[in-house]
Amino acid sequence: MIYIITPVFNRINFTKTYLEALSKQTATDFKTIIVDDGSVDGTSDMIQNDFPEVVLLKKKGGLWWSEATNIGIKFALEHGAEYIMTLNDDTLPASDYMEKMILWSKKKPSALLGALALGVHDNKIVYGGEMLNWKSGKFENIIDLISDSNQNGLHKVNIFPGRGLLIPADVFNEIGFYDSKNFPQTVADLDFTVRANNAGYEIFCNYDAKIRVYTEESASVKLNQNRSLKNYYKHLFSMKGGANLKWFTIFAFKNAPRRYVFQYWAIGVLKRIFGYPIKWFLEKIK
């Protein structure tokens, strides 16, 4: 049995449309767990009334993504989960999404399988998997390396976000859970997949399993779209900052190969500090 784990907080409309999409799946051999981290907008009541089949774990708040996800995962494992899927409520899975994930999981039962992400408004690919080059500090987009005719099936990667990621239960038994202590909100998903890959688990982006995403709803995207000195500070230091220097530093020294660790860290810090103001300046002079 697959258990889908989704933390939510005060996004009742997103949560409802997300659960509606899951209710229309062509494959039904899965269970959904919603971890409500203290919502006050009626989210829990809506779930109980409209989606009684969903397991609702109500919490008091302050857990953030990583620990809320861990709570859902532990519940699922205690109830015999064979696979865990992490999926966000600002996504809309295609009707055959679970069917395609299950199909490929039978062919690659020990692998982690991520989803192909499309923009919810234009249906264009926004994420098709990446290979992290530790030496250069660059993320190489898989979609740039394959032809249109090969945009199907599985494509190997070495890192993947938690948005639509299918994980065998054995992975948690071997490497543990998301590192909520060091990475309460972002980076925890990337850290987890690096640890899994280092432990010998293959990771693929499943181009047959599609989700549509509201890219503009990402907190880090909002900070970049609305550039200001305040948002620059948040970009580098806040809980939702996509370039959080503290978390990046921990990630680098925890995961980078020893021979590349200082190089990878230095390149990453420079990109984070100077990337935002450079792009801001270029936008101003256009």
CATH superfamily of the largest domain: Spore Coat Polysaccharide Biosynthesis Protein SpsA, Chain A
The mean pLDDT is 94
What is the overall number of helices? Answer: 10
The CATH level-2 architecture of the largest domain is identified as Alpha-Beta Complex
The termini sit apart by: 53 Å
Give the H and E element order.
Answer: EHEHEHEEHEEEEEEHHEHHHH
The dominant shape is: globular
Helix content: 40-55%
What gyration radius follows from the Cα positions, in whole Å? 19 Å
For the record, the count of structural domains works out to: 2
Number of strands: 12
Low-confidence stretches: none
In terms of structural class, how would the helical and strand content be classed? alpha/beta
Spatially, the strands of the biggest sheet line up as 3-2-1-4-11
> What fold name stands as the CATH topology of the largest domain?
Spore Coat Polysaccharide Biosynthesis Protein SpsA, Chain A
How would you sum up this structure, described in words?
- With 286 residues, the chain is α/β, with parallel strands linked by helices.
- The strands form 3 sheets. It has a 5-stranded mixed β-sheet with strand order 3-2-1-4-11, sandwiched between helices.
- It is globular, with a radius of gyration of 19 Å.
- The N and C termini lie far apart (53 Å).
Question: What's this model, at a glance?
Answer:
By secondary structure, the protein is α/β, with parallel strands linked by helices. Helix content is 41%, strand content 23%. The chain has 2 domains: 2-215, Spore Coat Polysaccharide Biosynthesis Protein SpsA, Chain A; 220-285.
